[in-house]
Amino acid sequence: MGHPLRSTAAVLAAVVMTGTSVAAASAQTDAEPTQPADAASSLVFNEIESNGDTTDWAELYNTGEEPIDLSGFHFRDDDDDHDYVLPEGSVVEPGGFFVIDQPLDGEAGFDFGLGDPDAARLFAADGSTLLASTSWQEHAEVTYARCPDGTGELRQTTASTKGESNDCSLPLTINEVSAGEESFVEILNIGSWEADLDGTQLISAAANETADSQDLSGTLAAGERTAVEDLELASAEAVELRQDGSTVLDAADWSAAGSAVAETSSGRCPDGDGPFEQTLKATAGAINSCAGIAPVQDWPGGADVAVADDSELVDEDLSGLFHQAGEAGSSGTLWAVENDAGTLFQLTEDEDGAWRPVEGWAAGRTLGYPDHEGTVDAEGVTMDGDGAIYAASERDNDAGTVSRPSVLRYELGDDDGETLTATDEWNLAEDFEGLGANQGLEGVTWVPDEWLTEAGFVDQSTGATYDPAAYPAHGDGLFLVGVEGTAAVYAYVLGEDGSAERVATIETSLDMVAEVQFDAARDQLWVVCDDACDGRMTTFAVDDSGTFAEQATYRRPAGMENLANEGFAIADAGQCTDGMVPTFYADDSNTDDHSLRTGTFLCPEEDDSDGPDDSDGSGDSGKPESPGRSGEAPGRSGDAPGRSGEAPGHSGEAPGRSGQAPGHASQ
């Protein structure tokens, strides 16, 4: 059966539209709405959607026995300047729900986001009488909600229930079942908060008859798993995990799998959220052993990560990075973009090891659009072979609710001024219909045509080996963009005539993509996730089929916290010292007043810089192995329990691909 915890949005029932808000009532009366003085004792924020995606909302609940007229009331976050006045006709019934939403389908709504940390506050029509409030320190994985409705404490949920009674089910899954000599059922907490097992029960059954049951107790921390070993499974063919005697949290049925569950085990592949498959071996209390899925590896570089910027570099929102090799003896140049103000920074390393803006770049350069005013939400940065800068953007921040997934090109001159105006823009919106404004391009990297042809890269739009000559006037390489909302990477030919032709889709095992970097020294592509995936990074190489296939997934360095690292760069091989090259991380949250950190990674093997990897991942390429070329089978890492909410099109196939989108490229 499908996993019941995967639903992130319930279908609204019994709803009444009032302006931009949704009021769902469990009881309707003809009584006159109460006055604000009575509302203070009856209104509570019941559910908050602040999880870093494209839409935020706040749900109110009426605990009283009379309807409450909210017309003219003020909704604010923690900033008094962010003020939204509820429209006329906004009424919440007794025992009912009322959703204060952002603009949807042309309706009015609040035009500010709910951040981390942040708050939701409701004021009476006078704008000063506080009626209800709540606050939080970080985004929810799905939502924050009261359990039970109206009276419980706000806590993380496993499903969004906008305008309906909250889903208070525990974030637990059956992850593996073995009916062999050492039979067990493994339970995994896929949520981001501690789960109390008291009141949960495992029930095994055969031919729809109960074989055994066992009450569970204790707690499971986020990501923790436990193996229950005393349940009768030898005669069973299915098992259910129930909460409070009735709610089925998860189930596993191996009636059609024959003896597989006794020979090894039946486990979720990938671990935590995949479908049940026969495993390679039983792994009670550990990550499932699945065919074609390489386990996550420890970071092979240095464990330590150090601060590499001054606290005044940016307040927050540092995002994409690109390291440009310098002359012999030089540490090169680090290019960085800040997404809120759309700023490009050129950084060099000082004698004290800190990376600071070069002379004249203290405030960076504001990135502009080629044809209109606006603020580029710069999320990624790269450079082509001619030295032009390219930025990846999710949207124009001046129209923050509209998706504008774009690649923009900039030329650098001796006297650039405070603003760089893009020479060209490739707006890929037609290729990503329905993509949220905050789910677009997070990273961009340039890959030379020469490398791609030598690697035998296949153009998926034709099914043949990529031929640069088939795309005249496109420059000397392809641009690979990482899309947050699909957790995939896409290869594009950007034409001088403004066209953008997608030639490949690269699916990843990560929950989201925060950065992409082509690594010529190791003949591989880095795809990076941020704190949503506990800082994991996956490497890809072109295999014998001509596609970018996963090689290895690495944990973040042991000495680094789980930061919101939206940028990653690895230094040129010429920076190799004592077997290590520098790595760089951009923390979007500016933790402890620092946004840039540096660590180390193993230097590439000498022969790895000679050309593309012509192996199939088996290690038989004739070249020495280096990190990221370990020969691990492509597949999901399987190490991260709990997705951060469902994103559209996670399979990597973006809806509405048009094949051609407006754009252009450098010469």
TrEMBL record:
<dbReference type="InterPro" id="IPR036415">
    <property type="entry name" value="Lamin_tail_dom_sf"/>
</dbReference>
<feature type="compositionally biased region" description="Acidic residues">
    <location>
        <begin position="604"/>
        <end position="617"/>
    </location>
</feature>
<feature type="signal peptide">
    <location>
        <begin position="1"/>
        <end position="23"/>
    </location>
</feature>
<dbReference type="InterPro" id="IPR027372">
    <property type="entry name" value="Phytase-like_dom"/>
</dbReference>
<feature type="region of interest" description="Disordered">
    <location>
        <begin position="587"/>
        <end position="667"/>
    </location>
</feature>
<dbReference type="Pfam" id="PF13449">
    <property type="entry name" value="Phytase-like"/>
</dbReference>
<keyword id="KW-0732">Signal</keyword>
<protein>
    <recommendedName>
        <fullName>LTD domain-containing protein</fullName>
    </recommendedName>
</protein>
<dbReference type="Pfam" id="PF00932">
    <property type="entry name" value="LTD"/>
</dbReference>
<feature type="domain" description="LTD">
    <location>
        <begin position="153"/>
        <end position="288"/>
    </location>
</feature>
<feature type="domain" description="LTD">
    <location>
        <begin position="33"/>
        <end position="146"/>
    </location>
</feature>
<dbReference type="InterPro" id="IPR001322">
    <property type="entry name" value="Lamin_tail_dom"/>
</dbReference>
